[in-house]
Amino acid sequence: MAEELHISQKLSKAEKYQQLLPQLEALVKGENDTIANLANLMAALKQAFNFWWVGVYLVKNDELVLGPFQGPIACTRIKKGKGVCGTAWQEAKTIIVDDVEQFLGHIACSSESKSEIVVPVFNKNKEVIMVIDVDSEVLNAFDETDAAYLEKIAQLISDIA
Ligand code: SME
Q1: Under CATH, what is the fold of the domain 13-160?
Q2: Which distant-in-sequence residues (6+ apart) come within 8 Å of 137 by Cβ?
Q3: SS3 of 28, please?
């Protein structure tokens, strides 16, 4: 694995993701433990973007269960179809929420969270096996650039999970 992360803070968001992606690949190369890899990937995302909360929820039986994350403590279990995470799982698609107060059924793990993006991770049979959840303490923090690159990171996770 790579020893250090190099992210220039002067870059645009898209450029930062581009700089980050090959480093994420290097980070997980040679390690086959999924939890260890997820833990480092979430730490790398936190380090690169200083996201307020970034983590994964893993599909276990009929629920999402909290996995490796960076940020304040969070709810541990989410039912299918509930909240942004459970909806992204049910619909098997990325969801961007500009203002969590406008999302019916949003699960407020913290009142600090104002906007959110959730990206599903698929297995080879196109089933959702986990979701990546990123929260911000400001409104409108996420856009199609985040969606496109987080989906690439979801594909990387899918390849190693
Ligand atoms: N807000 C999420 C729950 C997870 S926390 O934000 C970390 C949701 O509505 O699914």
Answers
A1: Beta-Lactamase (3.30.450)
A2: 52, 112, 113, 114
A3: helix
Q: Which amino acid belongs to residue 123?
A: N
Domain definitions of the chain by residue range? 13-160
Model confidence band, residue 110 (pLDDT cutoffs 50, 70, 90): confident
What's the 3 CA to ligand 1 centre distance in angstroms? 31
Q: How does the average pLDDT of the chain come out, rounded? A: 95
Looking at residue 148, its pLDDT comes to: 98
Look-up: residue for tokens 């959840």? Answer: 133
pTM of the predicted structure, to 2 decimals = 0.96
Q: Cα(54) to centroid of ligand 1, in Å?
A: 10
- Of all protein residues, the one whose alpha carbon is nearest to atom 2 of ligand 1 is 107
Tokens 């890899």 sit on residue: 37
Testing ligand 1's pocket by substitution, the residue of 52, 79, 94, 113 carrying the most ligand atoms inside 8 A of its CB is 113
By 3-state DSSP, what share of the chain in percent is helix, strand and coil, each rounded to 5? 40, 25, 40
